[in-house]
Amino acid sequence: MRILSGVQSSGRLHLGNYYGAIREFVRLQDEGEALYFIANLHALNTVTDGEAARRLTLETAMAFLALGVDPKKSILFRQSAIPEVTELFWILGTRVPMANLERAHSYRDKVENKKAQPDFGLFAYPVLMAADILLYDSDVVPVGKDQKQHLEFARDWATKLNVSCQPKYDPQDPLGLKSKVPGLLKLPEARIREETAVIPGTDGQKMSKSYGNTIDLFGELKPIEKAMKSVKTDSTAVDAPKPTEGQPLYDLLKVMLSPEEFAEVDTAWRQGGKGYGFFKERLIAAYHTTFDGPRARYAELEKDPAEVERLLADGALRARALAAPVIDRVRKAVGL
Ligand code: ADP
Ligand code: TRP
Asked: String of b and e for 302-312 (b: at least 16 CB within 10 Å)?
């Protein structure tokens, strides 16, 4: 089984990135051949300062390593180190319906929020992501729920290219078991873990750097603890049982504590007698239990950026070797 995923290097990583994505990456590296990359080309859509883009790419790589992505088990690389991905991006783009891109969440959300002047990079974002997904013949793509549409697009467009280049290709039989014509591009499956599908931020909306409601994984502790103390609660009295619906504090405790610890906290929550401050302290303690180790490893990696560069360069070589036969098939089929 070949596993592939990426995270944009567009800012500091937060709890949502860990529980929604990176924790799963670490688990999956024992189940197959894993490729993980820093989506630094995608990040150019939001990070326009070159120096910041370079720094964030390296920081994201260090975060992956500190959180347990093991370069002996997984292939870790920069998206930009694989020129074949932008080539496949273009080729796929020649078959992508405009109507698909117009209804892509990544584009629509930004346009509707009027946060950004939409430019071509944002519009074409799903096509580059599809190229990432299809370039390495991957089987499984672990992502957060918000990326589901991108996976569906990747599968649709791969099917389109397969059909348009291979007259005998049967979309009902993508592996070519009956037709003997397997797709030029393999159709991977999304792997979305429902229980951690959406990690709430401090205000109760989805945790996201674009909402300014994050609890970060690395960096100074003070603002991180402050963010945990600022998680939105209601005015339920200390003695009263606390409501469990729409409570980001409750949901965060649920993902961050072990099932046994959570069972105990859950009882206290429902019984009443403890104020929200008590539960916030439990959250801070859980953060330390989980992230003190990674934070120490991150500090070590920061002292040796040359080693991180070496690991990334090695990963890029291995990733390119896997991309080579795929791009070769595609070039031939489209007539390049
Ligand atoms: P952000 O929303 O902060 O910009 P990204 O879009 O860069 O985060 O997300 C990187 C990865 O982390 C994706 O796989 C995404 O699905 C996952 N992720 C981000 N935020 C959350 C969240 N709040 N809950 C679950 N997964 C998340
Ligand atoms: N769009 C993804 C995100 O925001 C990052 C990403 C880029 C990705 N290419 C990918 C994820 C390919 C999985 C597979 O998180």
From this structure: eeeeeebeebb
Ordered domains of the chain (ranges, CATH): 2-198+305-334 (3.40.50.620), 219-299 (1.10.240.10)
| pTM assigned to the model | 0.93
User: Collapsing DSSP states into helix, strand and coil, what is residue 125?
Assistant: helix
pLDDT digits (tens, 9 = 90+) for 139-163: 999 988 888 999 999 999 999 999 9
Between CA 269 and CA 257 the distance in angstroms is 14
Give the whole-angstrom CA distance, residue 84 versus residue 230.
Answer: 45
Residue 138 Cα, ligand 2 centroid: separation in angstroms?
Answer: 14
- What pLDDT does residue 68 have? 97
Residue 5 Cβ inside 6 Å of ligand 2? The answer reads yes
Q: Which atom of ligand 1 is nearest to the CA of 201?
A: 23
Cα–Cα distances (Å) from 94 to 88, 254, 301, 334, in that order, read 10, 45, 42, 10
Note whether 200 and 206 are within 8 A (CB).
yes
CA-nearest residue for atom 15, ligand 2, is 7
Answer yes or no: is pLDDT of 251 > 90. Answer: yes
Neighbours of 197 (CB within 10 A): 14
